[in-house]
Amino acid sequence: MDEIPLHHVYTYNAVDRAFWREHLEDWLPRRIVDAHFHFIDPCYQIETITEEMRRQYWVLETNLMPTAEVAEHCVRTTFPGREVQVLAFGFPTLGWDIEASNEYVRRECLRRGWRAMALTRPTWVAEQVAWLLDQPGVIGIKPFYSMIGYSRQLREGHLEADILDFLPHHQLEVINERRAWVVLHVPKADRLGHPSNQRQIREIRRLYPDARLVIAHLGRCYTRPHAEEGLLPLADDPGLYFDNSAVINPDVHELALRAIGPERIVYGSDNPVFYMRGRRQWRGRTYINRTSHPFHFNTEREPPEVEARYTLYMYEALRGIKTACERLGLGRDAVEAIFHGNAERIVADIESRKPAAASPVHAIAHSTEAG
Ligand SMILES: [Zn+2]
To answer: Could you read off the pLDDT of 52-98 as tens digits, one per residue?
Structure first.
């Protein structure tokens, strides 16, 4: 009872329960939309992940994919007493069977009243994207630079690509027409502030104003200097949205909430990776992930008594958002908007335009009749 397995090496323990009670229970809204979540049955992974690959890229070691059942168990455990809706996608690299991943995520989301984003390859014709968006339960796409081509370097392989290299114009035209959601994880080591990212985001907004462009992880701005460079120049575009997943830093949340405002930021966890236990520390433009599990990258450990007090990264991130809201004196309306209102409004708008047969409610009824 004391320690509940979540997923992979992650568990939920007494520290987490106490943290929830102290910081989150009375503050988080009853309804929550987690707009950035990865799950996929590992049976769809084609590529064999070697020990060498795990050592090379920390995400491969920390971010094993859960099945839908495990994902649901984790969501219920970490958000006790909350009604949680998840917007989910698989793992965006060519090491996975992408078509089968999309169908699995879509089907499992439908069963749970969740929504799915389809992973897209930039080589697909417009009709392929249109077909995916017409499927019941699918509300948008999750493009990613790793989908440009296979690279054993995984992350670094296409990191310096431009946005339009993996989110091409002909696909954006379809997205714009359907007013669909795009989870945009920006490329470049320089993150959102890179001039090419800034220029192409403005270009996409100008040419495709009805696409719901949602910049993931606040543009990968995890430190204050990156947030100033990346977020501030884009903050005045009233049609541009952001998800705050994987951001822990309260200074970054504060800057984002002040500059962009709570009506254009949606909550996301980036789980399962944020079931990791520990804390993040920032120095200038860099950060270090502290954690208590002996992952290969985890070479700078903290004393055991410090590690014993670690909670889940997702809880630290939630506290970061709470701290920022309190510093800015934001009221309940703002908190409700970030945690469910904004995402629900966008999803409702997208679904109101889908072909009638494609609404999730209808699809669930239909599948019940059929079987
Ligand atoms: Zn993610």
So the answer is: 888 888 888 888 899 999 999 999 999 999 999 999 999 999 999 99
Distance 285 CA to ligand 1 centre (A): 21
346 Cα to the center of ligand 1, angstroms = 19
Q: Tell me the CA–centroid distance for residue 296 and ligand 1, in Å.
A: 21
Cross-strand bridge partners of residue 133 = none
Q: Write out pLDDT tens, residues 165-209.
A: 999 999 999 999 999 999 999 999 999 999 999 999 999 999 999
Amino acid at 157: G
| DSSP code string of 60-111 | HHH-PPPPHHHHHHHHHHHSTT-EEEEEEE---STTB-HHHHHHHHHHHHHH
Domains and CATH numbers, the chain: 4-370 (3.20.20.140)
How many A from CA of 260 to the centre of ligand 1? 21
- Cα–Cα distance measured from residue 219 to residue 237, given in angstroms and rounded to the nearest whole number: 15
